[in-house]
Structure formats: C-alpha cells, structure tokens
Design brief:
Elements (H helix, E strand, L loop, with lengths): L2 H17 L4 H11 L6 H28 L6 H25 L4 H25 L8
Helix pairs in contact: 1-2, 3-5, 4-5
C-alpha cells in the first residue's frame, strides 16, 4: 500500500473503532502491520523550491516572448499584453486560495507568478507610455 493510502487508513481507524466496525485490537494490529509513516520533510521542501523555480522560468519566458515582439505591436495591444499576465496570475492565485490552499508549493509558485506579473506590468506600461521615474 502506498504512503497516501496508509495515511488515509490511519485517519479512518479512530472512526471505525468508535462505530464498532473494528475492535481496538484490530486497529492496533493494522497499525503494527503497516508501521509508522516516514516524514517527508525533505521532499516537501524540494517540491516548493521546484514550484518557485518553475513559476520563475515560465514568467521570465513570457516576458522574453513579449520583449522580442514588442516594437511590432500597437499601444493598445501592448497594454493588453502587459496586463494579461497580471490578470492570469491573479486568477491562478484565486484558484490556489479556493482549491489548493493546503499545498505550500502551489501557494509559493502562484505568489512568485504574481510578483513577476506585477513587476512586468508596471515596467511595460511605463515603457509603453514613456513614464519616467525612479524607484522611490
């Protein structure tokens, strides 16, 4: 049985014992048979790092495609393309909050995507309309 199935079984055992489906001895026997679950701390951190790295690469790739074709586009098209990644990243963040809120990898990946989209939108709109200024 895989680790997810064993984790599910261990979560179900107290309910099964309280309903009388299993005796305490049977539940203890099942726990003894499958043993303790190993912790997956290292794997979780690796997934988070890879999710952030993946979001970073995808975001930078989108920015690179825009930059390559930037001079050939009209101003309204530039604004739409500048704001589209921001809207998509916000939609991804909303989906993560509603559906995948338990996954740290999804949270970190979507936060990285939103950060890149905000920075790209600000800089691209400023470049399109020649808005000068410095960081402060």
């Amino acid at each position: 049985m895989n680790k997810r199935g064993v984790r599910w079984l261990y979560a179900e055992l107290p309910g099964l014992v309280s309903k009388g489906v299993l005796s305490r001895e049977s539940a203890a026997s099942l726990r003894e048979h499958y043993g303790e679950l190993p912790s997956s701390v290292g794997r979780g951190a690796a997934v988070i790092v890879l999710a952030v790295f993946g979001a970073l690469l995808i975001g930078l790739g989108v920015i690179l495609v825009f930059a390559h074709n930037w001079q050939d586009l009209s101003r309204p098209t530039r604004v739409v393309l500048s704001l589209a990644p921001l809207i998509l990243a916000q939609c991804l963040g909303g989906w993560v909050l509603l559906r995948a809120s338990g996954s740290t990898a999804w949270k970190e990946g979507s936060a990285t995507a939103i950060m890149l989209a905000v920075a790209a939108a600000i800089s691209l709109v400023a470049q399109t309309y020649n808005i000068s200024g410095d960081l402060p």
